[in-house]
Write a structure and sequence with these properties.
This protein has 232 residues and is of the alpha/beta class. It is 28% helix and 31% strand. It has six helices and eleven strands. The longest helix has 28 residues.
Length: 232
Amino acid sequence: MNDANGEPQGTIRLSVPTGLLEGSLGAIFPEFLLLHPKVQLQILATDQRVDIINDRLDLAIRAQLTEETDAELTMRVLSKVDLILVANKEMAARLPKGEGIESLTDVPTVSFTSGLIDWREVDVWDFTGPDGALYRHEHRPRMSCRSVPAVLEAIHAGVGVGLLPDIVCAEGLRHGTLVRLLPDYQMSQATIYLVFTASRGLPTAVRTLVDFLVERFRTFNAAIEGDRADAV
C-alpha cells in the first residue's frame, strides 16, 4: 500500500530465525523502519518452519542446509553461509595442534538440533578434509538445543566447541572471543532464503523491504567474503 505521495505504508508480517535476528539482522530492521516511517513490522522470531500462507505472513527468512523448492512460493537466495567449528579462546588454546579430526577426541561439544523433537544422545559432524577425504566425528554433546543464540552463548561460556554458520560467528571472530578450529576442514554450507507467495502483485511496502534486504545482504556478503579471505 502507498500513501498519496507514493511512500510505502502498512503492516508487514515476517518470520526470521532467532540466530539471524539476534545477530546480523538485528540492526537492519530498525534501519528500514527509520527510512520508511509509515511502515510497521510484525516479526515472528522462530527457528521452526512456518507456513507462510496459513500463518498469514508476507515474508519468511529461512536458513536451510539443503536446496529448497516450492511451486507455490517464490524463493530468493540472500546468502550462502559456511558452517564452521568454533570455540572460545580459552578452550581453543587447550586443544592439541595439528592433529586434524583426532584433536576433537574427548573434547566437549555443543550442538544445534535440527528437528522439532530430536532427542539424540549422539550427534555426528561430517567434514571434508584438506586431502578431499570425508571424515566423521561422532560425539555426545554436553548440550543440544534448537536455538542458535543459546548454542552460541554456550560456546562463548566454554561449555564446548560447536558448529555454527560463519554469519553468526563473525562478530566473535573479529573481536577474538571465538577461534575457528580446523579451518582446513570444510563442513556443510547453508542457504539463507527470502520466501514470499508471489513475485508480482506484492504490496509496495513488502516489495520495498524485499529490495532493502537483498541490498543489505549483498553488502553483508561482501564483508563476510573479506573475513573469509583474511582467515585463509
